[in-house]
Queue: 4 jobs
Job 1
Amino acid sequence: MAIDIDLAEIAQLFIEESMEGLDIMESGLLNLDLGDADTETMNSIFRAAHSIKGGGATFGFMEISNFAHHVETLLDEMRQGDRPVTKDGVDLMLQSVDCIREMINSLADGDVDTTRADELEIDLAKMLGSDASPDPADVTEAAADAASESPGAPIVGWEIKFEPHPGILKSCNDPLRILRELRKLGELEVRSIGASKLLLGEFDPEECHVAWQMTLHGGIALEQIKEIFDWVSDECELSIDPIRDENAPQPPAEVVKESTEDTVTPPPKPAAKKASKSSSSSQDGGSIRVNIDKVDALINLVGELVITQSMLSRFNSDFDFTQIEQLREGLTQLSRNTRELQESVMAIRMLPISFAFSRFPRLVRDTGNALNKKVDLQLVGETTELDKTVLEKIGDPLVHLVRNSLDHGLETPEARVAAGKPETGILQLNAYHEGGNIIIQVIDDGAGINKDRVLAKARERGIVGPDEILSDEKINNLIFMAGFSTVDQVSDLSGRGVGMDVVRRNIGDLGGTVSVKSETGVGSTFTIRLPLTLAILDGQLVRVGSQSYIIPLISIVETIQTNDEKVNEIVGKSELFKLRDEYLSVLRLYEMFGVQADSTRIDDGLLVVAEANGHRVGILVDDLLEQQQVVIKSLEANYRQMPGISGATILGDGTVALILDVPGLIQLFYERNADVQNNVHQVA
Amino acid sequence: MTVALRKEEELAADIEAGGAGGQYLTFMMAGEEYGIEILKVQEIKGWDTVTPIPNTPEHVLGVLNLRGAVVPIINLRQRFGLETIEYGTTTVVIVVKMTDDDQERTVGLVVDAVADAYRLESEEIQPPPDMGGAVNTEFVLGLATVGEKMVILIEVDRLIDFSDLDAAPDAANEADATIAEDKGQ
């Protein structure tokens, strides 16, 4: 086949578009008002299903196309108003959407599992068969469909009547091609009808005046025939009726179905496999859709940069000091161009957070149903943009938080009424920018965190000492500890004690933080704070001896000056200092990194109080230098990852400065302390 | 000495295929002339101060900004177990491309001075002799004679150990656990 060349690439496009189509279907279905469906929504759902079906057939993914066809038929009846939009119908549709999604996903692995599709197909057929009131205009199709599905004598052939509209040739469709295609399926008898109407005087050579009556022999699936007529279905009168072998014994319905399935599947398999293999490889690279406006803005900026450059290059050949003012102006312009260019390039990687939010209406609906809770999901700030990499990685932590809020936070309708709250709980996802960060909040108006229970559990597990008094905030944040769960009954959703610690770790990996505020009986608010991008960070330059290091600003709580008297040394070389009401360890950076510091006395240096994963330490440095935005360069690219260092950057003077990985550094610090303590124990 | 044996075989195979022949850039270190395949060399630049990376082997001097890329710098004297000297005006950094597990990395090698470039035919190159376990022939590709001089040819790809610290995530988990315990006390 000539079209084989780029089929894989186009098939990838089909997969991407189908995924978008499925999202449209899903959100449309979720927005449908039962009983009174909005025509526009219904149409968009239908269109999405239709293009998936068409695309599937074109690329030979017959399993998908066939299944989508059944979905489309049901949708069509709903769209035409012949079938009321019922909850069962919508649920079935949602299941079908999931099923198609799974099938498309499995295309990447090469094999499409149709068991689920087959089950759903039976459900769909049942719904179509039971209370359907078929549209008279659609009778042929529906009847044929029903015929293929309903139990009866085995089909031995098809009676096809094909009457093209006169204008069919103008749309570049060749009826003879269709006949040729049909012949490939099996033995074909063709009788032309209607040609006798031709009068030589009225004959227009650009119109089609012929119609055909055909008999196709063999146990061919209806879908295969329909596929051939796919392109001309709007431009002809078509009827396809099965010819049954009445003498054959009546087999059960399942067998008929299976036999038709069998005839369908074998031919497209190799094509599907081939296409999917290459598609999975191309998926690895990852692509991004960029708004054309952003690209235009970028081109404009590059244009300006070129102008500035040519202006500056004038000074290269002849320069005298009278032009110093112009030079300065040019340099200012250059720095402005550079900054704008940087922002624009970053903007290309920015996507609205709605990509991450879009899965939640469905998730909340399903989870709410499973838990018998009434939930009103509110999405705020969906257009807030963030880096694609961050966006991709924030999805799972968010799902954890939302599930947690649904399971632990919101109460059952009865409990809510008893507490004097409206029956339906509110779950809000809120996103906004604050400084160079994006803030994502998961807010519920549920019962809040049961502090007594959390504390009791923490004491039981030995995380908190029996006499330790903790602030409310500290108690709330205990839920992020590993292996911590207050739910006695492990449910399908949460309670296994993994989850919140994973959430915190995942967000920590992205250079962000997560915290919780909660008030008993009023609700909880989880706040995720993330950098907008992973390529640039706000850093604080610090100096230790002759070396400069960068501490990410997001990790720094404050910087203090203290003196040796306020620092206590406890067994095993751990130094602690008191900051207001808590004791923090002193992490001597020169010791960790083995460099020469100006002074080893705490009086002479500064303590940068940094926080990671809920642990705070004071990092001892010689001096604070300026704050600046730094571009992150990987150490791994040419060397390897180093503990305690997340990367490097290049400073204004061209030298390299290392960026500290605060969580890693704290871990390294605790590990070393543990080693020291072990040694002490051994000596003792 | 299985390592050396295997390399000998490899080299023999190389020589047969005409692989070891080609152009070599030579440099001086402690009076000896060493050669590396010229196609591996990206550029030669003067010595510049580097930013040290903590907790790395001694021969890794640190990293340098090479037109926006962060490149590690190796002290080849230390790598070969030679005594270190003060760096002077002739000290140069040879920037080479190393291939390690299909990944290409740029690395700078600090040497005393650059010497010459030669074209060596495969038959002029001999496999390194077995000098006993005491001598580290790990990176030696072979020996070549140019005029009266002997040139030691070096396998660039074997100079640095890039292996990542695979155990790091586990160690992190343990650290978390110890932190949790600390809090409990």
Job 2
Amino acid sequence: MELHSDALRLDLPAANKYLNVLGACLNAFIERIEGIAEPRVTAYNIELAVNEIFANIVAHAYGDAPGGRVDVVVMLASDPRRLLIAIRDTGIAFDPTAVAEPDLEDVQINGYGLFLARSLMDDVAYARCADGNTWQLIKHL
Amino acid sequence: MALNTRSIGNVGVLDLHGRFDAHVAPAVIEWYGRLPAPQIVVNLVDVTFIDSSALAALAGGMKRCRQRDGDLRLCALQQPVRVIFELTRMHRAFEIFATEAEAVASFTR
């Protein structure tokens, strides 16, 4: 993803205690975008989707190794207008095909994170790169 | 997030505030272990955000209480946090009440 001059870049420790920082930054970024239908609902849903990917990285990418980081880039693109969010880590590979879709007819305790991200965004893509993992989330606005 | 807990009769009430996310969920799960009785009401009136780890903590507590012939019931959900219950259809698994009084009273029905 080519970085626009007005893109927001966050370099966060891979720890759940920073989920609130990530959420606040996303909300503040989206708040300044004009003309969004149902801005509060849209911001909440994007925050939840990104939260799920970040928490998944915290849980799985670095194991018990300390010092892991998560790089988050948020930017607004045009034609069509959409929010692009890239989330990168340098941890172990993630296998999206190994994640089963939750059984919505049953009471399941875990396994909703990726399902939620995919449900709330227009596109969620994962790629394994040479030095880590990249998630790209897209929401049309 | 600080966990504020109260007892109303034999019902344990958990008041949560602000974000209920993967950072907070372990403290809630730990609280279940100290419960004297398996009747819980989680008051979400001041909760502004719920993620899947928090949902898992609630669902795990519900299962745990039901195994002991009790229940974990929810009350006062704000509109934005309902999305996670609706997408996962967990709103059908929990008993959800508009007010804390209704949720607590439901245990004496």
Job 3
Amino acid sequence: MKHLKVSLVAVLAVVMATAGMAVAGTLDDVRAKGFIQAGVNGDLFGFGKPDEKGVWKGLDVDTARAIAAAVFGDANKVKFIPLTAKTRFTALQSGEIDVLTRNCTQTLGRDTALGLDFCQVNYYDGQGFLVPKKLGVKSAKELDGAAVCVLPGTTTELNLADYFRANGMKMKPVVIENTAELAKAFFAGRCDVLTSDASQLASTRSVAPNPKAYIILPEVISKEPLAPAVRHGDNQWKDIVNYSVLAMINAEEKGITSKNVDNMLKSTDPKIQRFLGVSPGNGKALGLDEKFVYNIIKQVGNYGEVFERNVGVNTTLGIERGLNALWTNGGLMYSPPFK
Amino acid sequence: MPEIGKDKTADSLPEAVPFFNDPAKRAILFQLSAMLIFGLLGYYLITNTLANLERQAIATGLGFLEKESSFEIGESLISYSAADTYARALLVGVLNTLIVSFVGIILTVILGTFIGVARLSTNWLVSRIAAVYIEVFQDIPVLLQLFFWYAIFYELLPSPKEAFNPIAGVFLTNRGLVFAIPEAHPAHKYIAVAFFSGCVLVYLLRRWAKRRQEKTGRLFPVFRVSAGILLGLPVITWWLAGAPIAMDVPVLSGFNFKGGVNISPEFTALLLGLVLYTAAFVAEVVRAGIQSVSHGQTEAAMSMGLKSGQILNLVILPQALRVIIPPLTSQMLNLTKNSSLAVAIGYPDFVSVAGTTINQTGQAMEGIAMMMVVYLFFSLTTSAFMNWYNKKIALVER
């Protein structure tokens, strides 16, 4: 039995030891590789999924592209790695990916025990319930005894149990790891309810055989700030990811878009000159090119453009800005000054 | 050559051989250096891992087992809720793996033997059907088969409100197979006691019958009498207890049936997929075992006047089993290990629960180690039992 334990530890050790050797300098690693490896969803329309031509599309995908634009001046220097909810953190911890942009909720537990650091939130979400109309349910409080489809290893899974416990109701979870398989089981009637972040429910409903046959219940039972995550302890890399997202938010606030950014370079406003790197300083402070903000906005767009392109009211998801509007419009998107 | 020997005895001993030319000493040296290299490698890996974990501030240790799990599990053999600990959640997973493997192994052996024998049938149609079965199920990856069966269950079967009701008390829905069971009654305890006393009685009867046959040569109808005892004793007890017939009948209430027993589509799909897949391999093992006994043995037994049942029991099987048992053991292990594919179709087996635990606590090292230990334990136990059985049935050479 002793030998057994020793060999077990050894095998595990190989897994951990061969991974993530050079955590301290992600920026140097990324530069040496020539591209960023970003963990994304892969199955979530509007956030991370390749289109029919194999081009990756989505809000999280564009966030990763913005980071590549900041580091390399080229938004296409990203390799997207699709991950399930269960594999995503291990992939980041072990160094398989450099940044996790996969509709991932920031929590205290993940920030500490999992050894992660979360950056600026790129989507404020909340958990909801999707049900078929013919079920005749109007409120989540009527779901006692229901079979609920849920993804394993998510905050959603925990909120669900909490919500039913708090309301003295019972339920049967149906837990399938693959997002597409889970949706299939739900559409076929294996469960009464599908629960997830409201944005995901909108995304899932948009690919239903008959989207009009499903409604999202009014209750939002949790706060889900979705944010890019990096490994704990690499402050420079965290700053880069952080300010790449913030640059898109700040650009929207300043009215800078991918279309007018070239004109804005000629602006006489010292704030915009500093922001776009016309007057230098910001780039050097982050260890990046002075034109990193220009590159992000030119190649990816500001936050508003990215939002409307991927999940906005004119897409099949049709999501309002809501909490994700700028603070000046009653939302939560707010960027500290770039100086 | 003999001259050297002479030299040795005649004169003094030869000079000491340098240690690198002495095979015994050299072997020790090699062993030591191998151990040293292994030790250094192990030391490097372990310290590096611990350093990595510490630098990334990832929690370690088994303390999380005591914490509240906060997630629900779809089906459980013991009472469980989100308020229980991770340790209990993992135990639920272990039991779920155990039940599906145990039931799966029994059904696989029965079905596999049946098909293996059918494959050897002299009836052309029967043997062809068995051959087609074996080829088809052996050649499709088991994961695809699981997806197929699971999809069949939730796509084709109706919702609970339109449940398919073939006989009274049995309902087929996309939420699973629901059926009535006898309502809890104190008599059930006595019926169980009666059944187990029946088992002991049958065991004693067989020993007695065997000894009598060895002494007198007279046969005793053991099978028929045993069946009578095993069935009769519980039935008589039930009748004596006043023949309770109240049933716990499932009733549709709200979203699903309440009462009775509900077997989930996930469990059924997993069991069906594993059994049908592994049975194809077991069938080939059984066929090979039977064919390994030369036909001359059958002819010899026939010429001695044995009946066909006796030929199978006394001549063929004892020899075929020796060939069958070792590969059969490895098929049983395969089934147990393949049951971890449950995670793909939503059956909460051990891997599924442990995976969720790893994700919620972030303690991958501990979680993976536990998975390995549990599967190793299952496999070693199965092997140990089968090895014992194999030794027991091995031919005793005189």
Job 4
Amino acid sequence: MEGVIQQFYLKSSILKTSLHIQSFCSFRFNKIILNGETVVAKEKGLSFSEFSKTVYKESGIAYPKFFKMDNLSKLTFLTAEVLLKNCALPSEEKEKMALVLSNRSASLDTDRKHQLSIQSKENFYPSPAVFVYTLPNIGMGEISIRHQIKGENAFFVFKEFNAKFLMQYSEALIHNKKASHVLCGWVDIEEDAYRSFMYLVSKRGTYIHSEAIINKEYQNI
Amino acid sequence: METLRQELKENIIEQLNLEDFTVDDIADDDRLFGDGLGLDSIDALELIVMLDKNYGIKLTDPKEGKEIFVSIAVLAEYIATHRTK
Amino acid sequence: MKRGVAITGMGIISAIGTNVEENMTALLFSKTGIGEISNITTRHQKDIKVGEVANTNSQIAKSLQLPENTIFSRSALLGSLAAKQALENAQIERISEYRTGLVSSTTVGGMDLTEKHYKTFQSNPETLKYLKSHPAGDSTQKIAEQLGITEFVTTISTACSSAANAIMLGARLIKAGKLDRVIVGGTDCLSKFTINGFKTLMILSNENCTPFDANRKGLNLGEAAAYLVLESEAVIKKANKKVLGYVSGYANANDAFHQTASSAEGEGAFLAMQKALKVANLQPEEIDYINAHGTATLNNDLSESVAIKRIFGDAVPDFSSTKALTGHTLAAAGAIEAVYSIVSLQEQCVFPNVNFKQPIPELNIPPAVKFQKKKVRHVMSNSFGFGGNCSSLIFSSE
């Protein structure tokens, strides 16, 4: 399927005025990379829960709701936190921002936990707090609440990271004046194997908004 | 009753992932929702599950929860009278 | 006038019928599909009501002429059936004739098979083959194979607004000239996973649900699939195709309030409706009917009513929720309600909001309670999902 999508885009690449990327941020292997620079590096042995808790504590954010989130939302939340702090947008810009995220495992990590809570006949207590997170877009909801982002939200499920798709989707949003900024990327987690990559597309910025650059930065961790 | 209150505080912190709180931070009369511990509607549902699981109390209407989940003191009182396990 | 994107075909299977005609008849006579659950064994059997599709998996597989031993989740089966109907309705014979895509939404995916075989995955590796159907994308891929679509295939999963977002993406792909034809819609089957999940949220009613009623007790889950065929102006002209209606407006916005609860002001819903009107270049008074999200939960119906009031003021058009007949079909809801919106345009009628008795006291805006014939040119369809994901679509007759 992926090969076909790639081809499809090659056939129809029409580019208008070029857009830019303000910042990139990735989380993987207990490291955080911001605009090519490693800003946090923790022991490889830490689980995602331990790693995310440490990052939360060290960042000095006071947002107790963080601890209630599932791991996919925690990953989404922290990546957006580091990225948006670096971009420092005024709140009226944030309100109009669009979110376009993607991954391959949807909410599988939390689905499993919910399934575990309903599979035992003797101990049948499905958790409402776990069930709420069995949708991949809940993480987008969490960052929308945190940053008061009210623009368009879309979550796509792909076999693998698809820079071209994300690129064209953000371009369409900005060119059709649906948004002035698009928070874009990939957030995927299955147990302790996690990987996030987010970037902010905007009319101005340090990097050119191109497939090659997005792919290069995605591979950077 | 004191033991039950203590147990409730521990359970609530654990079940609702209130990582920033310790048992000593929660007074018996603190409001659990709104300004107090800042719990929300999903937390109320988790508390309903906890009542069932730990004390054999089944609530079927979330509105009942509102009257019970006022504070640790009120909750402990309710559990002491209605518990089946 | 700025035209929207043409709809040339539709297909549907829901608790009130296995094709468009059956659904239409059920709507015209307010025939409900809500009843006791029969295809799934659950301890909640007596305390929930659902909108279940009567056909069993093997019946659907047979009608699709699937070879024996093929593994299709129920979402993939329902989706394949509805999508095939849509293609047939649009009289499409050769997919490869134009650049054709599929945008399908689901939230349940292959959960029905996973939960059935979960306990044996470790002890009996033979059952592991069912796990391949688990991902959301599997149902989309299966439907694409059934239709022979290879050009562009993707899945959207944004909770209960999923199908509305699939329709929005399809319309955009055509407007941007990237595709000539897109099959858009969604599919979700009932599963223990969703039944138990919604049960713990205490928003399932043990009776037939009563959207927008003052004494509403919660929702009934349902299962369904529906797809629309969207085609570009050029294809319509060249093939001289019959157009059923147009997707003229669409928008999505985030409520930015809570993971599951809607805000008291209905901010996300308000923004979605406002932006959809803007895209369609319409004034609020031009909307003749709103097919509301109307899940019959305390929270949604109040919040949605507030948002509707904010947009339409004292001139709220006829509105109703058809979920009282079909149940809430999650990622299929936006698609089946799109079909109903087009039926409203075709039949020039408004569907009643069944089971309604008393208006919500805070607002006092009652929904339409009687089936009525009237001039219908523009229909708004709302779909709001967990995560604050709110979408509004507008369908127009020309």
